[in-house]
Amino acid sequence: MKKLLPILIIVVAALVGGGGGFFLKMKTTAKPADGEHADASHETDGKGKNDGHGKKSKGGHGEPAEGVSTYMKFKRQFVVPVMKNGRPEMLMIFDINIEVDSSFDDSAYSYEPRLRDAILSQLFVFANDGELARITESAETLARIKASLLETSRKIMGDSAKEILLLDVGIQEY
After folding, report:
1. What's the pTM?
2. pLDDT tens per residue, range 84-100
3. Using CA atoms, how far apart are residues 25 and 38, in angstroms rounded to an integer?
């Protein structure tokens, strides 16, 4: 019995943890059922008064407010070698997100392969010009690179791409 007790505790803990994780995931991804809270047909309280619940308005409950953004996070970071005289001088790693219009949130990930290709190509252009190596030296260089990446993103996503967020830059010099 003493040998069985630790195994039993581990199994029970794994089941409880797995069940809790499953229910938390279900809670965050649940959508309102038909006729439930998202239905805006009950705008009055029965006496003709508007109770404000289910009201159709910009920024109201159940629909995104105008100007609200979501963020598209790439699954992998961007790795760019910086060459000088045909030899690698440094390796730069970028963690980039794109701020997108909230109406574009789930479908934005379908553009990820094309966006990765376009952004990586643009980063290679900056690496070859030597600008990428100077990204930490001036705010103007950083702003120019971000503006160029935003323009590249907008060619693929349209005006739904609002801003390029450069979350992290790693530099490994050789």
Report:
1. 0.60
2. 888 889 999 999 999 98
3. 20
* Range of the structural domain that residue 116 is part of: 69-173
> What would the two tokens of residue 155 be?
């060619």
Concatenating the DSSP letter of every residue in 56-80 gives --TT-TTSPPTT-EEEEE-SS-EEE
Question: Tell me: the pLDDT tens digits for 21-70?
Answer: 777 766 555 455 544 444 444 444 455 555 555 444 444 454 445 567 88
Answer whether residue 107 is part of any domain. yes
Residue 44, domain member (yes or no): no
The answer to whether residue 18 sits within a structural domain is no
| C-alpha to C-alpha distance for 133 and 145, rounded to whole angstroms | 11
Question: Which residues, 6 or more positions from 149, have their beta carbon under 8 angstroms from its beta carbon?
Answer: 96, 119, 122, 123, 164
Is there a domain that residue 81 lies in? yes
